[in-house]
Task: structure prediction
Amino acid sequence: MAEHPVFSKTGGDLTADDITANFENLHSPLNDQQASVQASRCLFCHDAPCVIACPTSIDIPKFIRQIATGNPLGSARTILSANIMGGTCARACPTEILCEQKCVLNVGEDEPVEIGALQRHAVDYLMTKNGPHPFSRAADTGKAVAIIGAGPAGLACAHALAINGHRVRIFEARPKAGGLNEYGLAAYKMADEFAAREVAFILGVGGIDIQYDQTLGHDVLLKGIRLDFDAVFIGIGLGAPRQLGVEGEYLNGVSDALGFIENIRQTADLTTINPGKNVVVIGGGNTAIDAAIQAKRLGASNVTLAYRRGPAQMGATAWEQDLAATNGVTTLHWAAPTRLHGDNEVNAVRFERTHLVSGKLQGTGEFFEVTADRVYKAVGQTLIDDSLEDLKTERGKIMVDDNGHTSVRDVFAGGDCIASGEDLTVQAVEDGKNAALGILAYLEGEKNG
Result:
């Protein structure tokens, strides 16, 4: 991922063809020859540091060796055995700071092995073959597990439970499964409806049923579900966007960045979306970057991303920050919003310059304004905890032990709603896998108790 893709045109007056080109795959997939060349560069290290850096512990040297020896199906099975959402992770996870950063070739060469691209090559090969499912279910155990949320954590947990013979029912609040993979990642990262295709692939193992438009605390209650199922997994993510807490943030033209991204992902004709002419995105994470770049690719003339701290403190990786720059996004660091101006419609954002004093962020007393007819807030999300009943929370997260077990005997949790690591798809998958192991042990204990 060393180079950034070049798009024909961003910002200003774009044609329908321009916009279509701007939302094609961020990275072109490797062809067979390119994959072979990349695979041949791998040194197949013993105790490979790239494996240690992967939250799901994919055996990276093994899957690359399988590609190098002409066995892409075997390679995909190796990947998916550790990470059932390996296709999404190859597209959207920051491999440049995970596995690829640890590649030993970084020491002696200019570039690491393109691990993410090779992972995508193998998984896509298997999924497009439409052959027999690489996983099969064990005999039915007679046990049933409820899962709240069909995001990466819930789907990973469901898959692990299903292949062990348990019946799984997922209660999903949205009309589609996939969580942020479906609703919250930039469209150019998940082109060609890949999130939906990946969900269909996961469900193909059998034993998993999804009920849609089922919101915890409204359509379904935790106490009721616990009566009907042998165990429960909660993977509800963080559903409430944080607010800026400044005057004017409820003016017309001000909205949540995830809502903007969701609109892009769920709209068939992108030419119908007006991102604004002068856009300000407030935040420093990947969601802020995705919103800013997509606004530019939809035709916004000026896009400013404002973050209250410096580039080193941004949640977005350096690669993503550079991608924003190559797409014409202007980034302002050390800028905290203090007020949004306008009568009914937002027309400007007032910022105060900030700095660190003894490690604490403080305003300098110097203010400036940026013209804006659209403002997208990307300052994080919080847990909606009024439906969690007796579950203990701490610092806005559900409390779990090392096995994903909550404070309630038969309830487990994982994904963004717990404090386990970075808010990434790959971490959510690992949380789901880990909780599934905890559930398996719990159900076995119940059987023998």
